[in-house]
Amino acid sequence: MKRRDFLKSVTAVAAGSVLPAAPAVWSPAKAQSRQETLLIVSESGPNNIDIHGVGTTVPGYEVSWNCYDRLISHEMKTGENGAPYYDRDKFKPELAEDMNVGDMSVTFKLKKNATFHDGTPVTAKDVKWSFDRAVTVGGFPTFQMKAGSLEKPEQFVVVDDHTVRVDFLRKDRLTIPDLAVIVPCVMNSELVKKHADEKDPWGLEYTKQNTAGSGAYRVASWKAGTEVIYERNDKWTGGPLPKVRRVIWRMVPSSGNRRALLERGDADISYDLPNKDFAELKNVGKLSIISTPYSNGIQYIGMNVKNPPFDNLKVRQAVAYAIPYQKIMDAVLFGLAKPTFGAPPDAATQVAWPQPDKYFTDIAKARQLLAEAGYPNGFETTLSFDLGFAGVNEPLCVLTQESLAQIGIKTTINKIPGSNWRTELNKKVMPLFTNVFSGWLDYPEYFFYWCYHGQNAVFNTMSYQSKEMDALIDGARAAAAVGNTKDYDKDVKGFVDLAFSDIPRIPLFQPYVNVAMQKNVTGYQYWFHRRLDYRSLVKG
Amino acid sequence: MLRQIGKRLLTVIPSLIGVVIVTFLLTRVLPGDTAAYFAGPAASAQAIEEVRKQLGLDKPLPEQFLRYVVDLAHGDFGKSLTTGQPVIDDIASRLPASGELTLMGLVVAILIAVPLGILAAVKQGSLIDHACRMIATAGVSLPVFFTGLLLIYVFYFKLGWSPPPLGRLDVFYSPPPTVTGFYLIDSLLAGDLETFRAALAQLILPTATLAIFSLAPIARMTRASMLAVLASDFVRTARAGGLSSRTVILTYAFRNAMLPVVTTLGMVFSFLLGANVLVEKVFAWPGIGSYAVEALITSDFAPVQGFVLTMAVLYVMLNLGIDMLYGVIDPRMRVEG
To answer: What ipTM did this prediction achieve?
Structure first.
């Protein structure tokens, strides 16, 4: 190549590379599909599209929810923010057309016209096989089934082709609600069995990559870490046919870009932006933003009560009075959370959870309590948090650190990588930490059973042990099972009061689920699992 | 030539063995417990142990290592827990994405930096020389994620000229049938100009980000090495012999100045692969850089090992290629085997 030609071509290419791309022009077919397609952007995607799988992460739950049916689901009601919110107490049929609750069992009649995506009819056999699978495979699905006293395959009985009965092991108010969560989904047993072998009797390898359900959507293509594409199942019988024909869920790791995509109108929905972005988007008003407090979920500061100094009640109270609650609400959460502190001194305890305690920031009082506890000069400790949620946790811990320093408690902040957080929680040795717990089943006794009961579950991160607390929690569970409201109310109020006075963990706030969508997207519903339900969404 | 390549490849084997051992050990020393992470939020200690057993992580380290090596010998890199796919498939589908982006970045950088360097050397001290210095300094001092975000902000968010930063193709296009894995080439092979245009449009901003970052070393090296050569005797002789300055500069001087430039290119290419990790995050690019980072965050061993191994092989091949290129450019450099 001659030098002149060379330079010429160089300049041409250089010029070409800085010229902007012309705005995209869509062929009519593409514009059409754009109308019928919903584009969701979020940070991370599924690693397994079967909730029964080993190590399925939360995004996989969303796939399961939309691609499989359960026997029953929940009705909608209007939430406190005016948006549709699932009704904990009202069930509606999904695969079942009829539910008949007896004393020690519940019987479901299946819809006769329900079919799986491949056209095979849904039968009682499939229901039994799927439930057997959920209680047998171990890990999260088995744990979740157990939470509703669903533990053994013998409990699931095929009566005839379209009738299935679930026998109760014991009376438990959570059994029926637990049949409406994501885990007891009904799978195409014949299809999955075809792909099962001795090493993998439940066909987990197949369902990891393929949907084998009867749900409103099926996964048409899944590129791990990049995108999930769903197509609507036009023969869905679980409810009214969804309006959106195609859903594309793209992973966009940078939150700034997710926001830009929304603001430019290229993406339809995103639900995991930082609070600051949601607060700003809310003010601008170009998008619809719906914020809903987590049901049965609280972010808290926990203290290890097994070891000094937090085995001392006065120390715990001192910390509770030294937390900069309002600063956290304003500077960390930008107001996007529901406070669970600072109730008026005369407020009566409710039969509800979460509810605010009566602590507020009072440094003088905290200092005095600490002196009474025998630590007039404070002490040193570490404050740990999960880096996986650093966006909220880090500023929250820094503010707490500053505030605790004022009463002489010197804290070193210990950032723990997300992959290591659960291991550390399990060890139960962190003296001071912040964490979130939320339960799918929205019942106070459920929350307390996992977080405060002496059985010392993983979520009792404080290693809290109290005979009195255990008696109240067990009492409430027993009363709920037989519908004894009087005892139930007494016990719930009892354990809430005890949790606040003994204060092994300091509730801070109920986090919000924030969803940002284009104005032409409507029909968002809040569900206990906090993921999107595509079936109700409409793109106008 | 072939014997030479063979010999070089033989020397590579010890380094690969080293890489296999080191990555295996490194991933095991990482903080984080894979079993606890994937056992889910509700796992009891017993459930975590079950998962640990399923993943084979309860075995002693030497046994784990042996299994890893045996699997590796069968071409099995293990399974990623984050994506749920075999690592080899993940890497095979993601490597072309990173490759296409990195190569584009490098080509654009060369096309701008080399002429710029030559001009700066020929007209030393002139305006263009200062401009070259300015551009190089600015380019190298901006971190890539910053340049990337800035470009997105200006060209996508503010001006709307660029398509949404959603990876290799806009959501409403389907990728061309895979031949090379490079969308630009595959779409042309399929004769699909619309997809070609769409893929190119997606490439412009990330390519520019990488090119801006890698301009500096190439331009500076070209300039320095040109200056040295231009001051040498044979150039003076060529000038004295009355050759046109075009012939002197391009045929005599540049050819001799190319050796250090090619070395730099090799280096730039390897650190572009590194810079890619951030650019891929910013542009939602489904490449191997973002894949490895994701795996690292969740202490997912197999992909990290697979990634490091792939990178090691790539570097080795790159070095080999550059050594071969030396011989082509400068016959004196041909090592006799």
So the answer is: 0.79
